[in-house]
Amino acid sequence: MRTERTTRIPVVLALALAVGCVSHSRREDVDAVRAVLATRTELDLVDRDPDTWQQEEPHVRELLAQPLDAERAVRIALANNRDLRAAMYELGIARGALVQAGLLPNPTLEAEVRFPEDQVEPPQYDVGIAIDITALILAPIRAEAAAARIDVVRYRTAGAVLDLAYRVRLAFFRYQASVQHLELMQTAQESYAASVTAARALHEAGNVRDLDVSIEEAALEQARIDTARAELELYDDRERLNVLMGLYGHEVSWEIAGRLADPPSEPLVLDELEPRAIETSLELAWTRAELEAIGRSLGLARAEGLVPDIAVGFHAEYDEERWEYGPEMAITFPFFSQGQGTVLSREAELESLRERYVALAVAVRASVRAARNRALTTELLAHRYREVLIPARTRVFEQTLRQYNAMQIDVFRLLQAKREQIDAARGYIEALREYWQARATLDQVLAGRVAGTIGPDVEIEIGARTRESGGPTASSPH
Question: Is residue 4 very low, low, confident or very high in pLDDT (cuts 50, 70, 90)?
Answer without folding.
Answer: very low
